[in-house]
Automatic annotation (TrEMBL):
SUPFAM superfamilies: ISP domain. The lineage of its organism: Bacteria, Bacillati, Actinomycetota, Actinomycetes, Micrococcales. It is a multi-pass membrane protein. Residues 237-328 form the Rieske domain. Residues 1-36 are annotated as: Disordered. CDD domains: Rieske. Residues 25-36 have a biased composition (Basic and acidic residues). It is found in: Cell membrane. Its main location: membrane. Keywords: 2Fe-2S, Cell membrane, Disulfide bond, Electron transport, Iron, Iron-sulfur, Membrane, Metal-binding, Oxidoreductase, Respiratory chain, Transmembrane, Transmembrane helix, Transport. The chain crosses the membrane at residues 46-67, 79-102. Iron-sulfur subunit of the cytochrome bc1 complex, an essential component of the respiratory electron transport chain required for ATP synthesis. The bc1 complex catalyzes the oxidation of menaquinol and the reduction of cytochrome c in the respiratory chain. The bc1 complex operates through a Q-cycle mechanism that couples electron transfer to generation of the proton gradient that drives ATP synthesis. This is Cytochrome bc1 complex Rieske iron-sulfur subunit. Pfam families: QcrA_N (PF19297), Rieske (PF00355).
Length: 347
């Protein structure tokens, strides 16, 4: 069926509903279709956007190494801002250049193609090849080497930022997650937020922890001059949630009864699913909730998983009190913190 026949059939159908098919609008040629100079300008504009995309990719790589994030939040923000700017420019410029190419240089004639039966005959294959050849001619990619070459170059280097990002994933942590900053006798301090300092440390006494309360805590000494060399991931790895519930509600294993103190328990803050921070405590139900994927842990039963995708309980930090009544760790975590999918093999 031709476009005219299709249009007539459509008119008959629409006239039944009281409407007349206006048909396709009259084609209006663009300036680039009739003026070779305008066509050349449009071609250079498209190429300029592709070149800008390459500059954005190169800037991403330069910023990745130039603005290495340190321990301060300011350095991390600068790193993220500059590499993000490079990635945004690289991706946006390719897209914008392609849009300009389509609007100003590719064929803009409207047409109607009827749906045909799917088949693999030689005739259909010949038609498909003809369509591809027609697309090549209409896009002008064969006779516009400047656009073609800059597009190929921009697309060729576009994956480089992804290579750098995936490179940062690094090797599996191995036995590193078996060791945190906790050790025997380390006092529990309230997490001051940001990078701790000696002046910001606030040790916690057992009698300060009331039933129903929850604290985000870190090991003492993390802010002194020796611990200041610890990277931020060491601080995150040692993060703990401290809670107190009625000792009668605890269902402790016999070999873990001395890991708590008068209903005060401490568990790793890192979800065992994908490592999100578990930070929501429901004191009435004694449930800990991970906000990322809703894994839920029961504090009364050693933080066993009662809902969600996590496959193992949160690691428990054994605690006690020292001679001054401050809460201290009995040891490091007896099991690795973090997600199970890391497949940690302890030597």
């Amino acid at each position: 069926m031709t476009s005219k026949e299709h249009s007539g059939g459509g008119s008959q159908l629409e006239e039944l509903n009281g409407f007349t098919n206006p048909g396709l609008p009259e084609h209006k040629p663009r300036l680039a279709d009739s003026d070779p100079r305008a066509e050349k300008v449009a071609e250079r504009q498209v190429a300029a956007w592709f070149i800008l995309s390459m500059i954005g990719t190169i800037w991403f790589i330069v910023a990745y190494f130039l603005f290495t994030p340190g321990e301060s939040m300011q350095s991390i923000r600068l790193h993220n801002m500059f590499v993000g700017l490079g990635a945004a420019v690289a991706m946006f410029s390719i897209g914008f250049g392609a849009v300009l190419w389509a609007k100003n240089l590719m064929s803009d004639h409207e047409g109607i193609d009827e749906r045909h039966d799917i088949g693999g005959s030689e005739e259909d294959q010949a038609i498909a090849l003809e369509i591809l050849h027609q697309a090549k001619e209409e896009s002008g990619i064969a006779r516009r080497p400047l656009i073609r070459n800059t597009l190929i170059a921009a697309l060729a280097i576009a994956p480089l930022p992804a290579v750098l990002v995936f490179r940062d994933l690094g090797p599996l942590p191995g036995d590193k997650l078996f060791n945190t900053l906790w050790e025997k006798g380390t006092r529990l301090i309230r997490d001051p937020g940001g990078i701790p300092s000696v002046d910001s440390e606030r040790p916690i006494k057992a009698d300060e922890v009331t039933i129903g309360s929850a604290y985000h805590v870190l090991p003492s000494g993390i802010g002194d001059h020796e611990a200041s060399d610890h990277p931020i991931n060491e601080k995150a790895k040692a993060a703990v949630l401290l809670m107190r519930i009625d000792p009668k509600e605890l269902k402790e294993d016999p070999d873990r009864k001395d890991w708590s103190h008068d209903g005060i328990v401490a568990y790793s803050k890192i979800c065992t699913h994908v490592g999100c921070p578990v930070a929501l405590y429901e004191h009435q139900t004694h449930h800990l909730l991970c906000p990322c994927h809703q894994s839920t842990f029961d504090v009364t039963e050693h933080c066993k998983v009662i809902f969600g995708p996590a496959k193992r309980p949160l690691p428990q930090l054994p605690i006690t009190v020292d001679s001054e009544g401050y809460l201290v760790a009995q040891s490091d975590f007896p099991e690795p913190v973090g997600p199970t999918f890391w497949e940690i093999n302890h030597p």
